[in-house]
Write a structure and sequence with these properties.
Elements (H helix, E strand, L loop, with lengths): L1 E2 L4 E2 L15 H13 L2 E15 L1 H9 L11 H16 L5 E14 L2
Length: 112
């Protein structure tokens, strides 16, 4: 949710439901065991989604800077064309792009 005072994005409250993630069972079991040995229990894997937005000009900057590691997998001419399109849309005062960050969180409680 947007903080009105700072115009920055603040995390939303953690979701109350957890989802099983296919293929992660061995990792979850190992981390649960390690957390239990460290004095934690009730370990759950939860999804957390954080919505936001980014201006088209900032998105073009991030694209040109290869902000995400997978951008280098795209053909350079495709990256250039996308950045140029975003810059043109920013100049035309198009609205910001919606963003969603999806996090997987391990939540555990300290044992008394």
């Amino acid at each position: 949710m947007r903080s009105p005072a700072s115009n920055r994005w603040a995390p939303s409250p953690a979701p109350s439901t957890c989802h099983d993630v296919p293929g992660l069972a061995p990792i979850v079991a190992l981390l649960t065991s390690e957390l239990a040995e460290a004095g934690f229990g009730d370990v759950r894997l939860c999804w957390f989604e954080q919505g936001g937005s980014v201006s088209r000009a900032r998105a073009a900057e991030q694209l040109r800077a290869r902000h995400l590691s997978t951008i280098h997998l795209l053909p350079p001419e495709q990256v250039t064309a996308a950045a140029e399109r975003l810059e043109a849309e920013a100049a035309a005062d198009d609205p910001p792009l919606a963003t969603v960050l999806r996090w997987q969180l391990f939540v555990a409680r300290a044992q008394p």
